[in-house]
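_Backbone structure tokens_
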Amino acid sequence: MNRERQYEEGHKKVAKYWRQKSNKMWAALKHQNINESDSNKQYDAIRYLRRARRYRIRGLKRT
């Protein structure tokens, strides 16, 4: 297994993890399970979304 291939596989795993995580977070934000007062969770969600974007995850639901 050459290095490039190895890197790609690792990247895919990481990307999948963040896609799942950010999708959950985004769903929570959209359905307002997070109160406006609970800005910490909101901040987390936005951070996860940014991280997901960094890994170039497509099909991420954005309003």
The mean pLDDT is 66.
